[in-house]
What does this fold into?
Amino acid sequence: MTRLCSIPKCGRIHKSSGYCNRHYLRYQRYGDPLARSPYKYKVVTWLKVNSFNTQDECLLWPFSKLPNGYGQCENYLDVGKGAHRNMCFLVHGAPPTPKHIAARSCRNKLCVAPKHLSWKTRNENKKPLL
It folds into this structure.
C-alpha cells in the first residue's frame, strides 16, 4: 500500500517525515509544510498592481528571466511561466482558444505593459509591425 502525504487533500506520494516532496521541501525551508515562498507573493502583488497600468511605454519585468530572455513567473494562474502570459490573463481574461498566445505589440521580451499585450494566434503574431 502506497503511503500518501499527511497534508489533507494533498494526495501525493509520501517522501519523508510524512510529507510529499513539495510539502517536505517547504517544511525544510520554512519550518512549516504549508508555508509559501514570500517571493511568489511579491511577484503576484507586482502583477496585480501593474495590471492597472495605462501608460503607453514598456513596463519591464523586474524579476527573474527564462533562458530565452522572457520574464519568468511562477505558474500563477495555470497559464504558464511567462510573465507576459500571466499579465495578459489578468488584463484580458483567458485565451479564446488553446492556440492563442500572449503577444506583444512592442516585441520587447521583458515588456509586460497591459496596453502592449493581447491574445493572438502564432500566425497573427508573426505579421510585421507597421
Notes: The beta strands are 101-104, 117-120. The longest strand covers residues 101-104.
